[in-house]
Each structure stands twice: as structure tokens, then as C-alpha cells.
């Protein structure tokens, strides 16, 4: 399972890369807006920072087909590892089909239903992004959506990868892995939580305290 970092903050990305757990990055307009920096320049900087082997999703802002295609082509031209993020809907999926013919990979975002995921796969999306946290937020079951998409894609020869998005806690990551989702895009805070367990901290504290009581060093 691959982990993408869900952020437009280059310091967070540098931290994730240092831990060796980041296989790519996803951004969206809200995340880039938080940085207060130019839109395209931020996507380009992130793409260069993570290197060519790691995909970076940069999202179109337009909602009409012609402008969406122009923006998609500009995003794709920023760096070889830029994946164009396109919102679900007839216009977005039409753009995905054309972009695929041009050899550009797309991440279809804002997916909230299994049929939306089916349409994205039929259009030729490289990734589908179901937003599990936002589904949970409306008292529905985000992980059930992943289960449904895994089953649907498993019934056919779709190459579209399931990229679990809007991840809010380690449980989302664990369940996604159990279901065989291809990727989870995770905020740095949640990535940090994945390492943590109170018994790990307590166990280490005890090991070190027991050895300290001997008064000896590592070499003794
Ligand atoms: C995915 O690519 C989105 O950027 C992201 O996961 C949305 O998460 P949120 O619901 O926490 O904003």
C-alpha cells in the first residue's frame, strides 16, 4: 500500500520524506490557499521536491470543459510527475477521457458514491479519490464506500487505483489496508499517529530505566 501526503506545505512534505514513508503528494485548492502562495508555482515546487518517482496531484480550478483542459495541460506540463486532479461530473470525466488519450494521468476527486467511482474508471482515471472522512461527517459510513469500490473494481479489468482520501485517523488507514485499497492520502498529523502506541512508549521507557539502574554504558 502506498502512502501519499495530503498537504501543500513543503515543510510537512520534507518531514514525511525524511521518515521514508511518502510515496506521493495530493493537493487541493483549499490546501494551497492555506499556504498563501501562487497556485501553479506551489504544485511545481512540490513536484520537484518529491522527485520524479512520486506522483503529485494538482487540481484544475475551472468548471467548464475548455478552460479545464487548458488548466489540465498547464498542470501536466509543470513536471513529469504531476497528476491532474479533476472533479467528478460530466465535464470532469469528459476531460479525463481526453487527457488519457493525450497520455496524462488523472486523479478524479470528490467521489462520494460507488457509481461515481464506476464512471471515473470507465472514463480512464488513473486514481479515484473517495473522501471517507467527509462521508463519515454526514453520519454515513466512509469505509463502506471503499469496500463497495474495491468489490466493483475487482469485478472488472479497470486499471484505476483506489486512493482513499479525507483520511482523519489511523483506523481509516488500517481498514483501507485490510480492504486492499491501493493508496491512502494522509495528513502529516495522521501519519505521525500511525507510529504511536502507548505500550510502545511505556515499553521503551521501562527498557531504558532498567538499563540506567545498572549504571553501565552501552559499551560496558
Ligand atoms: C484529497 O485528495 C483531498 O485533498 C483531501 O483528502 C480532502 O480531505 P478533507 O476532507 O480532510 O479536506
Pick out its properties.
11 helices; TIM Barrel; 53% helix; alpha/beta; 220 residues; binds erythose-4-phosphate
CATH topology: TIM Barrel
What gross morphology would you assign? globular
Which structural class do the helices and strands define?
Answer: alpha/beta
CATH class: Alpha Beta
Number of helices: 11
Distance between the termini: 42 Å
Order of helices and strands: EHEHHEHEHEHEHHEHEHH
CATH architectural group: Alpha-Beta Barrel
Bound molecules: erythose-4-phosphate
CATH superfamily: Aldolase class I
List the strand order in the largest sheet: 1-2-3-4-5-6-7-8
Mean pLDDT: 98
What is the count of β-strands? Answer: 8
Radius of gyration, whole Å: 20 Å
Brief write-up:
The protein contains eleven helices and eight strands. By secondary structure, it is of the alpha/beta class.
Structural account:
By secondary structure, the protein is α/β, with parallel strands linked by helices. It has one domain (2-214): Aldolase class I (TIM Barrel), CATH 3.20.20.70. It is built from eleven helices and eight strands. Strands 1-2-3-4-5-6-7-8 form an eight-stranded parallel barrel, surrounded by eight helices. α4 (65-76) packs across α5 (90-101). The termini are far apart. Erythose-4-phosphate (E4P) is lined by residues 6, 26, 28, 109, 129, 131, 133-134, 165-166, 185. Erythose-4-phosphate is lined by residues 6, 26, 28, 109, 129, 131, 133-134, 165-166, 185.
Amino acid at each position: 500500500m502506498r502512502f501519499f501526503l495530503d498537504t501543500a506545505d513543503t515543510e510537512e512534505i520534507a518531514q514525511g520524506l525524511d521518515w521514508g514513508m511518502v510515496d506521493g503528494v495530493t493537493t487541493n485548492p483549499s490546501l494551497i490557499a492555506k499556504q498563501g502562495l501562487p497556485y501553479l508555482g506551489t504544485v511545481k515546487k512540490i513536484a520537484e521536491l518529491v522527485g520524479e518517482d512520486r506522483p503529485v496531484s494538482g487540481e484544475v480550478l475551472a468548471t467548464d470543459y475548455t478552460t479545464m483542459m487548458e488548466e489540465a495541460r498547464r498542470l501536466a506540463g509543470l513536471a513529469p510527475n504531476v497528476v491532474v486532479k479533476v472533479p467528478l461530473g460530466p465535464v470532469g470525466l469528459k476531460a479525463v477521457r481526453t487527457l488519457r488519450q493525450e497520455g496524462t494521468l488523472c486523479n478524479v476527486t470528490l467521489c462520494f458514491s460507488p457509481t461515481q467511482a464506476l464512471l471515473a474508471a470507465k472514463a480512464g482515471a488513473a486514481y479515484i479519490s473517495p473522501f471517507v472522512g467527509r462521508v463519515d461527517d454526514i453520519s454515513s459510513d466512509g469505509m463502506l464506500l471503499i469496500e463497495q469500490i474495491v468489490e466493483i473494481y475487482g469485478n472488472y479489468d479497470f486499471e484505476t487505483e483506489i486512493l482513499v482520501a479525507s483520511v482523519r485517523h489511523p483506523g481509516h488507514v488500517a481498514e483501507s489496508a485490510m480492504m486492499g485499497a491501493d493508496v491512502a492520502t494522509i495528513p502529516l498529523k495522521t501519519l505521525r499517529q500511525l507510529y504511536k502506541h502507548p505500550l510502545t512508549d511505556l515499553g521503551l521507557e521501562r527498557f531504558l530505566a532498567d538499563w540506567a539502574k545498572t549504571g553501565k554504558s552501552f559499551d560496558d
